[in-house]
Amino acid sequence: MNRFLFPIVSFSVTLWAGDPLIIQANDLMQFQPNEIQCKSGEELVVVLKNVSRIPNFSHNWVLLKAGTNVNDFGNEAITAASTGYIPTKMKDRIIAFIPLTEPGKENRVTFVAPEVGSYVFLCSYPGRYSVMQGVLIVK
Questions:
Q1: Residues 6+ apart with CB under 8 A from 80
Q2: Cβ within 8 Å of residue 28, ≥6 positions away
Q3: What confidence tier does 19 reach under pLDDT thresholds 50, 70, 90?
């Protein structure tokens, strides 16, 4: 029996005011870094860079409000192809998002860091939300 092991590696970064944060999305359905630390009220510029080498392997980046049920959000996203897998029904649960980004491309979003707490970010493309996640820690 062949077994494949995929290492789970955690990358963390602390943002300094004014510095854009580049998050890479890769072929293994991972964000790097997958942990971001910042201060409440800071203006953040997040750049999603899709480094996938698989054709048509697009990713997005969605930052959810605290308390959002990730499974509910992901299940709603499955039926939201027309809106880039951003479910209109749950748009009020989103702090910020970067639309689907094709391999070799990048997109960005600017937003103000929310109040102190931990916030999940994920790729809402079908089948990825449960594994392609990270956390924004606001201090």
A1: 86, 87, 88, 124
A2: 6
A3: confident
The model's pLDDT over 71-110, given as tens digits with 9 standing for 90+, comes to 999 999 999 999 999 999 999 999 999 999 999 999 999 9
Count of CB atoms within 10 A of residue 92's CB? 8
Q: How many domains does the chain have?
A: 1
Give a yes or no: residue 53 inside a domain.
Answer: yes
Q: Whole domain around residue 28: which residue ranges?
A: 17-138
Alpha-carbon distance values, 68 to 7, 8, 19, 60, 104 (Å): 27, 24, 28, 18, 31
Q: What is the DSSP letter of 71?
A: H
Q: Is residue 60 part of a domain?
A: yes
Q: In whole angstroms, what is the distance from residue 67 CA to residue 77 CA? A: 17
Helices and strands: H and E segment counts in the chain: 1, 10
Does residue 4 belong to any structural domain of this protein?
no
